[in-house]
Write a structure and sequence with these properties.
The protein has helices at 2-19, 178-198, 206-216, 221-260, 262-279, 289-299, 303-317, 319-332, 339-361, 374-402, 409-427, 444-460, 486-493, 501-505, 527-537, 551-559, 564-573, 605-617, 645-661; strands spanning 28-38, 41-50, 55-57, 70-73, 79-87, 92-96, 101-106, 109-118, 124-136, 139-143, 146-152, 155-160, 541-546, 575-580, 593-594, 601-602, 621-622, 624-628. It has 662 residues and is α+β, with helices and mostly antiparallel strands.
C-alpha cells in the first residue's frame, strides 16, 4: 500500500514538472462524427475529451460569469439548422464564490449535437467556429478553433482545426498547482486529526487496554510484537479502505453533488450539530451493541485474526469520538480526485494507529502517560465547539447556492465570535457542562488555549466592518454579502478611485466605459495607448492578461492586488495595461489584425489580445503578468497565478530596478 502511494505521489510530481514546460495549453481534444436521423436530416456530433484537472464551461448559465461554450455555423444554401446545439452530456453545476452564481461545466467528456436538414445532394461542408474557455486551479485558457464537417455524396466525414503548436522555446511559466501540494497538506492535516482523536475520551482509555491485551495474549515476546504490528496495520487498513470505497464507488460526480447540492450540505450541517451536542454531553452516541459484541467475540481467536478484530473493535468503540473527525476528512477531501480520500484516511489512521502499536511493543512507556480523567471530557467539549463552528460552513454553502439569505457574512462572523468567546470562557472554567469535573485552578495549557480563543475573537471583530480576514476567508461567505463594508465606503469617498496625475497628462483610456481595474486602480485597456503613455511618463509597463470569465484572475485581484504594497507600486510606478482576452467588443476594420500564429483575422478586442499574448509571449493561459520597458522588452521573467503577495511585490520591485538600470 505504502509503495503504491509513493509511486502515485511520484507520478503526480513528475507530471507537475512536465506541465509547466508546455505553455500553449491543449486542454481539449475534439472528435467529430455524424448520426443519420432521416433521409434528409443529420446530427453533427461534437465530442470533447477534456484533459485531467481541467473543466469546460457549458452553454447555459447567466451572463457575467466565465466564457460559455458556443458554436457559430457559417450560413449556406446546402443546409439549415434545426433547433439549437444540444448538450447530450449533463453538465455539473456548482456555486462560484467569485462570480456569485451557479456555474455549469463539463469534466472528462462532453457530447453536443446539432441537427441539420440537408438541402443539397451534392458534396458540401458545414463550417464554423467554436469559442470556449477551460479552467483549472491556477489558470484559464480561451480557444476559438474552426471546425468543418465534410459531407461527400452520402458519406460524411469531418475535420477540425487543431490549435497550432508554438515552435519557439518558451520560458517556463510559474504555475503552482494547488492539487499537488494539497495532497501533502491533506496528509499532514489528516495526520494531525488522527493525533487529536487520540485525546478523546472514547480513545485514550483504550491505549492501556490494548497494551494489556498484547502483553497477556502471548507468552512469546516476539510473537506479541508481531501481533501488535498486525494490529496497527489493521487499523490503517480499515480506515483506508473506507476512503478507497468512497473514492472508487462514489467518484467525482458524487463528490461534486456532495459539495454543491443543498440536501447533503444541510444533512452535514445537522450531523455536525448532532455530534456537537453529543460532545457537550446532551446524549451519548454508541454503535449498535450487536456489532461491537460480534467483534469482541472474535478477539478471542488470537493470532492475526485476533489482532485484526481487536483493531476492528477499537474502530467501532471509538466511533462516537472519531466519527465526526473521519466524516470531516471525507467531506473536505471529496474534491473529485481518487487519491484525496485515500490519502486523507491514510494520514488519519497512521497517526491513530501509531501510538497503539508503539505502546503495545513498548508497554513500559505507559508509566509516563497522564491519567485519564476530567481533562479528557474537556477535550471532547472543545471539539464540540469546533464542530459547531465548522458545521456552519455547510449551511453557508447551501445558503449561497440557493440565495436564501440566511447567513450573510456578518451574521456568520457574529456566530463564530460568540462560539469562540464561549469556548474561551469554558477553558477558563466560567462555563460548565454536565459531565465536567470541578476546576480548582486554571492550568497553563488551558490558559494558553483560552488566550488563543479570545485572540481569534479579537481578530474576527474587524470583519464585522468589512475587514477581509484573509486567514479564514475560505470559510466565510463572500464579502459581497456584507451589508456594511467600511473599507469599500472609505475607498469610494477617498482619492483612491481618482485618476492619478500621470493618467491625467495622458489621453483618456479607450473602453473605460465598460472595462475597469480592481481596487480603484486606473490604467489602459489598449496596448498601443498604454505604451504611448508609458513613453510619455518614462515609466515601466505592467501588462495584465486577464478575462471577464477568469476565476483565477479574480482570486489574484482579491488576494494579491488587495495588498496595499501592491496597489501603491502599481498606482505610482507603473502604467497598467489590462488586456481582456475574452472581450467581445468589435473593433473597427482599421484595427483588425491578421495573426502570424494561425493566419486568422482578429476582429474583436479579446481575440486581438489573446493572439498578442500567444505570439509575443508563447502563453495562452490567464492570469499572466508581464513587465516591459518603453522599448517593449521584458524586464523580468513574467508571472502567473501565485497567491503569495510578498513574491508579487518582489516581482514588481525587481521590474522597477531593472527599468532604472536600462
Amino acid at each position: 500500500m505504502k509503495q503504491k502511494l509513493l509511486i502515485l505521489f511520484l507520478g503526480v510530481f513528475l507530471n507537475s514538472l512536465i506541465s509547466v514546460q508546455a505553455q500553449i495549453r491543449e486542454t481539449v481534444s475534439w472528435d467529430f462524427s455524424t448520426e443519420k436521423v432521416s433521409n434528409n436530416e443529420v446530427n453533427l456530433v461534437f465530442t470533447a475529451k477534456i484533459a485531467n484537472e481541467w473543466h469546460l464551461y457549458s452553454q447555459h448559465f447567466p451572463d457575467g460569469g466565465p466564457i460559455r461554450f458556443s458554436a457559430t455555423f457559417a450560413e449556406s444554401d446546402n443546409y439549415e439548422l434545426i433547433g439549437d446545439l444540444e448538450e447530450i452530456t449533463k453538465p455539473k453545476s456548482e456555486y462560484d464564490d467569485i462570480f456569485e452564481m451557479d456555474i455549469q461545466y463539463f469534466v472528462g467528456e462532453a457530447i453536443l449535437k446539432q441537427k441539420i436538414k440537408l438541402l443539397s445532394e451534392s458534396a458540401f461542408s458545414v463550417k464554423g467556429e467554436m469559442e470556449y474557455q477551460t479552467c483549472r486551479e491556477g489558470e484559464c485558457v480561451m480557444f476559438t478553433p474552426d471546425f468543418e464537417f465534410k459531407l461527400n455524396a452520402g458519406k460524411i466525414s469531418s475535420a477540425v482545426e487543431s490549435t497550432p503548436k508554438v515552435k519557439e522555446k518558451i520560458n517556463p511559466m510559474k504555475n503552482p498547482r494547488k492539487e499537488y501540494t494539497s495532497l501533502w497538506s491533506l496528509f499532514f492535516i489528516s495526520f494531525s486529526f488522527g493525533l487529536i482523536a487520540l485525546l478523546t475520551p472514547c480513545v485514550f482509555p483504550m491505549i492501556p487496554m490494548t497494551v494489556s491485551f498484547f502483553m497477556h495474549s502471548s507468552e512469546n515476546r516476539r510473537k506479541a510484537i508481531f501481533n501488535a504490528v498486525v494490529y496497527g496495520v489493521s487499523i490503517i487498513g480499515i480506515y483506508t479502505i473506507i476512503g478507497t470505497i468512497v473514492a472508487v464507488t462514489l467518484g467525482p460526480s458524487f463528490a461534486n453533488w456532495l459539495s454543491t447540492h443543498w440536501i447533503p450540505n444541510i444533512l452535514f450541517f445537522i450531523i455536525f450539530l448532532f455530534f456537537a451536542f453529543s460532545f457537550f454531553g446532551m446524549f451519548e452516541i454508541t454503535m449498535p451493541s450487536w456489532i461491537v459484541n460480534k467483534s469482541v467475540a472474535n478477539e478471542d481467536k488470537g493470532g492475526i485474526a485476533g489482532s485484526f478484530f481487536m483493531a476492528f473493535t477499537l474502530v467501532l468503540v471509538s466511533f462516537s469520538c472519531t466519527g465526526p473527525i473521519v466524516g470531516s476528512i471525507l467531506v473536505q477531501s471529496a474534491g473529485g480526485e481518487v487519491l484525496e480520500p485515500i490519502v486523507g484516511m491514510f494520514g488519519f489512521s497512521l497517526a491513530f494507529a501509531l501510538p497503539f502499536t508503539l505502546f503495545a511493543i513498548f508497554p513500559s512507556w505507559l508509566n509516563n502517560l497522564p491519567k485519564s480523567g476530567g481533562w479528557l471530557n474537556s477535550v471532547k467539549v472543545i471539539l464540540g465547539f469546533l464542530e459547531l463552528a465548522l458545521g456552519l460552513k455547510f449551511l453557508s454553502i447551501a445558503d449561497q447556492t440557493y440565495h436564501w439569505g440566511l447567513l450573510d457574512r456578518e451574521i456568520y462572523l457574529g456566530i463564530w465570535i460568540v462560539i469562540f468567546t464561549l469556548m474561551g470562557f469554558y477553558l477558563l472554567g466560567k462555563l460548565k457542562f454536565s459531565h465536567d469535573s470541578d476546576i480548582k485552578f486554571v492550568s497553563v495549557p488551558r490558559l494558553m488555549l483560552a488566550i488563543a480563543s479570545f485572540s481569534f475573537v479579537v481578530y474576527m471583530i474587524p470583519g464585522m466592518f468589512g475587514a477581509p480576514l484573509k486567514a479564514i476567508s475560505g470559510y466565510l461567505p463572500p464579502q459581497t454579502t456584507q451589508d456594511f463594508d467600511i473599507s469599500a465606503i472609505v475607498r469610494d469617498q477617498s482619492g483612491a478611485n481618482s485618476v492619478s496625475a500621470a493618467m491625467e497628462i495622458c489621453e483618456a483610456p479607450k473602453y473605460a466605459e465598460y472595462l475597469h481595474l480592481p481596487h480603484g486602480l486606473k490604467g489602459y485597456f489598449d496596448f498601443e495607448q498604454g505604451l504611448a503613455c508609458a513613453k510619455e511618463q518614462n515609466k515601466p509597463i505592467f501588462i495584465d492578461f486577464t478575462g471577464h470569465g477568469c476565476v483565477n484572475c479574480r482570486e489574484m485581484e482579491a488576494n494579491v492586488w488587495s495588498d496595499p504594497r501592491v496597489q501603491k507600486i502599481l498606482r505610482e510606478d507603473y502604467v497598467i495595461i489590462a488586456l481582456y482576452v475574452d472581450d467581445k467588443q468589435a473593433l473597427p476594420e482599421s484595427d483588425w489584425i491578421t495573426s502570424t500564429y494561425d493566419g486568422k483575422v482578429k476582429k474583436t478586442l479579446g481575440k486581438k489580445y489573446a493572439d498578442f499574448q500567444i505570439t509575443r509571449f508563447g502563453v495562452n493561459a490567464q492570469p499572466y503578468y508581464v513587465l516591459l520597458d518603453k522599448a517593449e522588452e521584458t524586464l523580468v521573467e513574467p508571472r502567473a497565478y501565485d497567491l503569495n503577495a510578498d513574491a508579487f511585490v518582489e516581482f514588481l520591485e525587481n521590474g522597477k530596478k531593472e527599468f532604472k538600470n536600462r
